[in-house]
């Protein structure tokens, strides 16, 4: 008996470690109640009280994997329904505030921030942006730079008797003209520096002009929106500067814009904001790219959606804090989103 004690102690000591490596079994019994609120394309309410959408589809597949039938429960606040015990899971966006009330599973979709604006014709849109504050700022900065270079050239060349830059008023204008044609590499040759100092300045200006021209071209292309087609990329928050921007009141997008110091008009709903864009009361409306695309495609609006590189929100399933259900659901979600047929499923629901 004494010889068996060491083996018995070793067996008891290894038991907790083995159980720690084994994931808890999925809870079973009864329907899996999932709280949802309409949020296309993740949660869509049908006319016959049925539910659909990417999040709803995932919840059904998770229930199948856990061996439980799924019952969807409509809730104004799905996260509150889970926290209050009215539901076992919820399809919702992940936020730091809600993390204090529930436990989120791994996210199944990350949405970027987007902008919806009128499609219009490319020529008309570029012409409209010629009168934007951004374009005037670029033009004014260029004029000031050319004037300073021209003034410096006149200051150097005005004592040279054989130079046309010698006269005060005409000479300053000739210096301005010379700076412009030199920067654009046109070089008509009607105004040429004669002094050593003038030629040294000309050499420096020709080298600097290479960088100025490149920066100017990029700034003008951005300011005029050339090459930004439907679904194209947009720079956040630079592309919102000087625009009439709308956002859903109280939304996360409103907080993001405020943090980025972008002035935005609040609207009661996404539809109201898109109506304002079509009525030319707004230049663009900011929200989640999937929601913007669904809203613009379903109503056949003449709007295009531009995607920014800013990650806006993550969608996940929420479970009660401390619930064993979270571990099983997280594994089911990860297996589903890592499967080869998940991208086609996403493409089916997202325009």
TrEMBL record:
Q: Where are the transmembrane segments?
A: 135-156, 203-226
Q: Which residues form the Potassium channel domain?
A: 156-224
Q: Which domain of life is it from?
A: Bacteria
The signal peptide annotation in the UniProt record is: 1-20
Q: Where is the Solute-binding protein family 3/N-terminal domain?
A: 32-342
Asked if the keyword Transferase belongs to this entry, the reply reads: no
Q: What InterPro entries does its record include?
A: Ionotropic_Glu_rcpt, K_chnl_dom, Solute-binding_3/MltF_N
What are the record keywords, sorted?
Answer: Membrane, Signal, Transmembrane, Transmembrane helix
Q: What is this protein called?
A: Transporter substrate-binding domain-containing protein
What is the species of this protein? Rubrivirga litoralis
For this protein's source organism, the top of the classification is: Bacteria, Pseudomonadati, Rhodothermota, Rhodothermia, Rhodothermales
């Amino acid at each position: 008996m004494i010889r068996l004690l060491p083996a018995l102690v070793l067996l008891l000591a290894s038991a907790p470690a083995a159980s720690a490596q084994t994931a808890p079994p999925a809870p079973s019994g009864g329907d899996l109640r999932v709280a949802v609120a309409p949020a296309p394309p993740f949660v869509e309410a049908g006319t016959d009280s049925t539910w659909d959408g990417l999040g709803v589809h995932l919840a059904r597949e998770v229930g199948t994997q856990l061996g439980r039938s799924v019952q969807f429960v409509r809730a104004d606040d799905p996260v509150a329904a889970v926290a209050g015990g009215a539901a076992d899971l919820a399809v919702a966006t992940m936020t730091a505030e809600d993390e204090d009330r529930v436990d989120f599973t791994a996210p199944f979709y990350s949405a970027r921030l987007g902008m919806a604006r009128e499609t219009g014709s490319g020529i008309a849109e570029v012409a409209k942006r010629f009168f934007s504050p951004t374009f005037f700022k670029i033009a004014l900065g260029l004029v000031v730079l050319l004037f300073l270079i021209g003034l410096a050239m006149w200051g150097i060349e005005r004592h040279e008797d054989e130079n046309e830059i010698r006269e005060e008023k005409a000479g300053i204008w000739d210096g301005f003209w010379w700076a412009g044609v030199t920067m654009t590499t046109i070089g008509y040759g009607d105004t040429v520096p004669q002094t050593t100092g003038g030629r040294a300045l000309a050499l420096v200006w020709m080298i600097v002009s290479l960088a100025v021209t490149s920066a100017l071209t990029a700034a003008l292309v951005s300011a005029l929106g050339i090459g930004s087609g439907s679904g194209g990329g947009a720079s956040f928050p630079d592309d919102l500067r000087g625009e009439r921007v709308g956002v859903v009141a109280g939304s996360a997008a409103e907080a993001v814009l405020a943090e980025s110091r972008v002035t935005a008009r609040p609207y009661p709903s996404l539809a109201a904001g898109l109506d304002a864009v079509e009525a030319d009361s707004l230049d663009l409306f900011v929200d989640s790219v999937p929601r913007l695309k669904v809203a613009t495609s379903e109503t056949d609006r003449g709007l295009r959606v531009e995607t920014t590189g800013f990650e806006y929100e993550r969608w996940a399933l929420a479970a009660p804090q401390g619930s064993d259900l979270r571990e099983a659901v997280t594994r089911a979600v990860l297996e589903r989103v890592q499967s080869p047929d998940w991208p086609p499923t996403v493409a089916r629901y997202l325009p």
